[in-house]
Design brief:
The protein has seven helices and five strands, in the order βααβααβααββα. The radius of gyration is 14 Å and the shape is globular. With 137 residues, it is of the alpha/beta class. It has a five-stranded parallel sheet. The longest helix has 14 residues, at 43-56. The chain has a single domain (3-135), classed as Rossmann fold (3-Layer(aba) Sandwich).
């Protein structure tokens, strides 16, 4: 069973129902709900998603959405080692380096994101949701 880190943009595709990307995100999270894959998010993703949702929704509504969402994923901690690795990395985007090292430190199989170019330095596979779903049909 694949163990996958899901980047923040994919989570937002699902929860904000972004037109162009919602169906792929929904299909991915459905696989998790069916226990065909295990999806993980970093604690940073959870915090950032709450912040972004609360910009357009009441805080209570944002939290309600995240409580329901949490049954589909496991939230991974961010610790000193991940921060140190991220600070010392060659990743241009600090948030992406945190995502990457969260996946590495938790021995995950791959990362799913829409920002493939930001993960050029990755030593584990990085796919879009669409690519992942197509390769597993």
């Amino acid at each position: 069973m694949d163990r996958i880190l899901v980047d923040t943009n994919i989570v937002l595709d699902l929860l904000a129902k972004r037109d162009k990307f919602f169906s792929e995100a929904q299909e991915l999270f459905t696989l998790s709900d069916q226990r065909k894959i295990r999806l993980f998010v970093s604690s940073l993703t959870f915090a950032n998603t709450h912040y972004l949702l609360s910009q357009s929704l009441k805080i209570g509504s944002a939290r309600k959405i995240l409580r329901k969402f949490k049954v589909l994923v496991e939230v991974l901690p961010m610790d000193d080692k991940i921060i140190d690795l991220s600070l010392d990395s060659d990743f241009k985007d600090f948030e992406d380096s945190i995502q990457y090292y969260t996946a590495i430190e938790n021995n995950l199989d791959l990362i799913i994101t829409r920002n493939l170019k930001d993960f050029k330095l990755s030593k584990i596979p990085v796919l879009t949701a669409k690519n992942y779903l197509e390769s597993n049909r």
